């Protein structure tokens, strides 16, 4: 059984003829000053069936409640325009039911001087990130409208000119007046109440006329804290995300805590762990038995969102994928209900072991499945697995700021680097912590969950994992506070940390000073790598690789991970001007090297695209001299002839993709590939697709050869069971 979610072009030739590498969809570029103001809108009810987008007023405060900045107006690119729809489905029927989602926008779709509106009764859009041209990148959307239980409602998102006078935002005084009753009992350790913190929030997360949100800190003892993320909607509805977190940045005296956790309101139990939880130090849990993480103080409207999958991929927020459908078998194996410290779909004690895992890839399996399908079960899994990441002991909150520590504040801090009860292992595993957080197999925690929900908890999860890797790395190799990610022993470790830090730079709000910290760390790393890597092949190795390395050859597929990750990060335009030229130069160098490795038989200085190897020998010298930049072959054709025992040539263009040779199969023994999955050809293919987005010369033609292969449709069909290793150029995905 398959579930179709997108329309793709039927003809590969027609598809490639239609490729264009400009803006996504039919968007046009915007112009104007770069700012980080939020935009909100609220208008008269437009009827339960929807109608013209809610006009309202705009320019409301940003995510910290600062005053709005007025944008420019005028010009054809600022005219009203429909952008995209999202689909909302409620589990209950009712009038003016409240909801909040996250939404990423393609560059130029909402230019500076315009704002997001929707065809619902009441609506606001709080902008957290903008593209360099001032157009909206990411916003948290909230609304109230009527629903019939189980009946999907399409919400049209559009842009209109910015309004002059913002509607007043809901204030914390209104929340205080509502006096929400919320108590959290943490076993014998004590009970804390939201009432004790009202009036003293740590941070305001949303400010608007439809919904405002605050973050509260409730100390159970010197180590254990309850964090309450409380959102008040117009009309009085209150939702809360309650998280219990054990430990701060300082490890001194950190211990595990045993407690049964119960959350109550007005005499009703909203959550009960039912038994004692062993809350390991530097872990955190969410008090929920479902997937959303939300506790509603009154009735839960049970609203589920489905984003437009094609738009999400075309926007650049996530890679585009080749999968045309999603199998029911895939959806059935995804976790759908959160249990504190359960493994769910995470690798657990398998992290760091050989072979594939559902967590490995530019996106982990659950995130890739939602990006392809927008299926409700996939959405549940995205959120559940983000919450499940809280079971790793990487949560090092700075008590002085109530946030993950900044790069600059602790330039010389070194966290433990060996296994043991102080390291970032997984709490559920037998023994104290089990496996470490293995950077070479690290996944992308929290990112897609934040994109689709807009919930701060998930953003923090990503930030925690980025900072843990930074502070557990050697101080000298990371350049102190510079945050260099260039000495991870294995190139794949560098790839995944560059990806994670790059995504943090893309979605940490513009008005958060540490957003620049993430961006600077990425930029400085790419500049360092551009200076270090000078070989003629465009192959990336680690400076320390000779101490563990591939004595006989180089693992090209680990280099591919870096190529693809850098391409994706640069697409999100997070690198600052001081590092931009070096970052672009590094991308051109490594991307061009990959293109030459995906040559056809007409290029005698190229490796043949259809016959990829696990770890080819790329130097005439022996280990460790073969790890030096000046020791690599002068071109890929030399390496290919060494591998195949013959030069590259047109007679090898048999029209088939061949499975990777990583055993002792002879060159002639490489079979025709039957499916795309976790294999070494796919890693190169995915990185190549991301190079197409960056317009690396020759990348588009190289990817066209793959898509025109005789066995490409058969291989592509297998992605219905696992879409991760089928990344495509953005222009491959068509809206419809």
Automatic annotation (TrEMBL):
Region (Disordered), start-end ranges: 30-80
Low complexity biased stretches: 33-43, 60-77
Lineage, top ranks: Bacteria, Pseudomonadati, Myxococcota, Polyangia, Nannocystales
Protein name listed in UniProt: Tat pathway signal sequence domain protein
